[in-house]
């Protein structure tokens, strides 16, 4: 697999604060890579370093397996903090300024405004835009010049539920066009919904990295047993709301369908006259670690 970004043993301290601690990650081409961690875990600092706006204190990084240069910086689009646009200029005129800075033809402006669904509003002044529209204009601006990688830092902060859904769909859409995406977020849910890969950070350190489906799989395994395994098995088969069932001696290991709780299962079994001798939820250890981390 080709890597778009490789970070090796990256380090950054601010006085006593170890903002990034010996971090190594690799972002595969075509992935939607989530950097997930609570506030202050070093996400923005890491992005700042790889974008060349923050000096690192050690380690290295490389884009496209090439030495860092102004040339390969042009292949990266970033939406970092509050977008800086001129409030009294229209969306179109703001993007013309960005196109000038990026040395991109104005012809590209229509394409990017259409992607973010702002073409109809191209003549409206920036200051009249809603928060969600401002965020979409920032994405359009980053898309100018057809970057191969797009970086988002907390793209849905401050948006309402509809705005959040719109931005997430837009990110997934952009990824489908083959652009690699790196997205920093403190929201587990956001990373689960939009990302294919994830690194989880805690106090600047990597806790784990991998495919979202492996690392953040929140489906729990339920263990259930009764003193008559045969009757229990028949009842479980009749219950139906089970994705997967495995027998392990007298115990059954189940993955319940979405929205089904162990209480639902237990209520059903009691109705059937089956008293369980054991019923418990076995959580994945990574998930446990992450939930603990977020509850600190
Ligand atoms: N310029 C700075 N000067 C001093 N400390 C800083 C500076 N920038 C970041 N830090 C510290 O480094 C740590 C990591 O900050 P960073 O902004 O990278 O975290 P984050 O994961 O992006 O957090 P958030 O979810 O709140 O955006 C924090 O403890 C922060 O206070
Ligand atoms: Mg941040």
Question: How does this model look, in words?
Answer:
With 296 residues, this protein is an alpha/beta fold. The protein has two domains: 3-215, P-loop containing nucleotide triphosphate hydrolases (Rossmann fold, 3-Layer(aba) Sandwich), CATH 3.40.50.300; 221-295, Alpha-Beta Plaits (2-Layer Sandwich), CATH 3.30.70. The protein is 35% helix and 30% strand. It is built from eleven helices and 13 strands. It has helices at 43-50, 70-73, 91-102, 107-115, 131-143, 161-176, 188-194, 212-215, 229-239, 262-271, 285-295; strands spanning 3-14, 17-28, 32-36, 58-63, 76-79, 149-153, 180-185, 197-202, 205-211, 221-226, 242-248, 251-256, 276-282. The longest helix is centred in the middle third of the chain and has 16 residues, at 161-176. Adenosine-5'-triphosphate (ATP) is lined by residues 14, 17, 19, 37, 39-45, 186. Adenosine-5'-triphosphate binds next to strand 2 and helix 1.
Mean pLDDT: 90
User: How many strand elements?
Assistant: 13
Q: How many separate domains make up the residues?
A: 2
The H/E string reads EEEHEHEHHHEHEHEEHEHEEHEH
In short:
35% of the residues lie in helices and 30% in strands.
State the main characteristics.
6-stranded mixed beta sheet, 296 residues, 35% helix, Rossmann fold, Alpha-Beta Plaits, 2 domains, binds adenosine-5'-triphosphate, 4-stranded antiparallel beta sheet, 11 helices
Itemize the secondary structure elements and their pairings.
Elements: E1 3-14, E2 17-28, E3 32-36, H1 43-50, E4 58-63, H2 70-73, E5 76-79, H3 91-102, H4 107-115, H5 131-143, E6 149-153, H6 161-176, E7 180-185, H7 188-194, E8 197-202, E9 205-211, H8 212-215, E10 221-226, H9 229-239, E11 242-248, E12 251-256, H10 262-271, E13 276-282, H11 285-295
Parallel strand pairs: 3-7, 3-8, 5-6, 6-7
Antiparallel strand pairs: 1-2, 1-4, 8-9, 10-12, 10-13, 11-12
Bound molecules: adenosine-5'-triphosphate and magnesium ion.
């Amino acid at each position: 697999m080709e890597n778009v970004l490789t970070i090796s043993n990256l380090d950054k301290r601010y006085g006593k604060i170890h903002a990034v601690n010996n971090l190594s990650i690799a972002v595969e081409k075509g992935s939607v890579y989530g950097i997930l961690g609570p506030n202050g875990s070093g996400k923005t600092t890491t992005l700042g370093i790889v974008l060349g706006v923050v000096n690192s204190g050690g380690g290295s990084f490389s884009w496209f397996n090439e030495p860092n240069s102004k040339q390969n910086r042009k292949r990266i689009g970033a939406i970092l903090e509050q977008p800086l646009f001129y409030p009294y200029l229209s969306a179109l005129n703001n993007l013309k300024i960005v196109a000038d800075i990026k040395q991109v033809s104005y012809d590209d402006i229509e394409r990017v405004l259409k992607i973010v669904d702002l073409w109809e509003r191209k003549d409206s002044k920036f200051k009249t835009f809603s928060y969600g529209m401002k965020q979409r204009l920032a994405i359009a601006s980053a898309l100018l010049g057809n970057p191969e990688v797009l970086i988002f830092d907390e793209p849905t902060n401050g948006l309402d539920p509809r705005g959040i859904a719109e931005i997430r769909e837009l990110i997934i859409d952009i990824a489908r066009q083959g652009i690699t995406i790196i997205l920093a977020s403190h929201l587990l849910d956001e990373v689960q919904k939009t990302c294919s890969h994830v690194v989880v950070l805690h106090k600047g350190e990597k806790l784990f990295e991998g495919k979202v489906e492996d690392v953040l799989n929140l489906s729990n395994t339920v263990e259930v047993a009764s003193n008559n395994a045969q009757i229990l098995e028949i009842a479980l088969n009749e219950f139906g709301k089970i994705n997967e069932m495995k027998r392990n001696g007298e115990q059954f290991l189940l993955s319940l369908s979405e929205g089904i709780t162990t209480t639902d299962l237990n209520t059903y079994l009691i109705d059937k006259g089956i008293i369980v001798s054991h019923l418990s939820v076995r959580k994945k250890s990574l998930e446990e670690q992450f939930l603990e981390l977020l509850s600190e």
